[in-house]
Amino acid sequence: MAKTRTRGLRRTYSRVVPGASGRVLVVDDNKVIRQLIKVNLELEGFEVVTANDGAECLDIVHRVCPDVITLDVVMPRLDGFATAAQLRADPRTRHLPLAIVSACTQYEVEAGIEAGVDAFLAKPFEPAELVRVVRRLAERKDRRERKGTPAGRGRG
C-alpha cells in the first residue's frame, strides 16, 4: 500500500529585508508564475507575500499590509476582477495600488478599469517591466501617504 501525503494551502512569506522597497502581495493560482514574480521582485529589494487566489488574498491582506497587490485574472474561488472590486469596496484597502498580471485582452483591461485596477502587465512579461510597474505603484502610494492622500483611484 502506497503512502500518500496531502498538504493544505500554504502561505508563502519572504524574508524581511532591511531597507526593503516595499511589500507586495502576489496573487496567482499558478505556482510557477507566483514564484517567478516573487523571485524577480525580491531580487530588486521588495518583500513578497503570496496568495493562491482572490479568496486567500482577501483573507490575508489585512495581516500583511502590502504596499502593492498584483492579481491574476483567471483564478478559482474568486477571480482578479471580483477581488479588485472587493478590495476597492473596503475602506481599509481601497487605497492599495492594484496591478493585473494577465493576458490583458481588451476585455480584461476594460473590466479591470471598471474594477479600479491601476496598472496592467501582459503575460508573458519581461521581469524588468514587472519591477518597473510595481516600483511605480509603490512610489506613488508612498508619495500620496506623505501628502496624506490615499493612493489608488479613490473609488467608493
Descriptive account of the structure:
With 156 residues, the protein is of the alpha/beta class. The chain contains five helices and six strands, in the order ββαβαβαβαβα. The protein has a six-stranded mixed beta sheet with strand order 1-3-2-4-5-6, sandwiched between helices. The chain starts with 11 loop residues before the first strand and ends in a 9-residue tail after the last helix. 37% of the residues are buried.
Strand order of the largest sheet: 1-3-2-4-5-6
Return Rg in Å: 15 Å
Number of helices: 5
Distance between the termini: 57 Å
Helix content estimate: 40-55%
Q: Could you say which overall geometry the principal axes of the C-alpha atoms support?
A: globular
The percentage of residues in β strands lies in 15-25%
Record keyword descriptors for this entry.
156 residues, 6-stranded mixed sheet, 6 strands, disordered C terminus
Structure, briefly:
By secondary structure, the chain is α/β, with parallel strands linked by helices. It contains five helices and six strands.
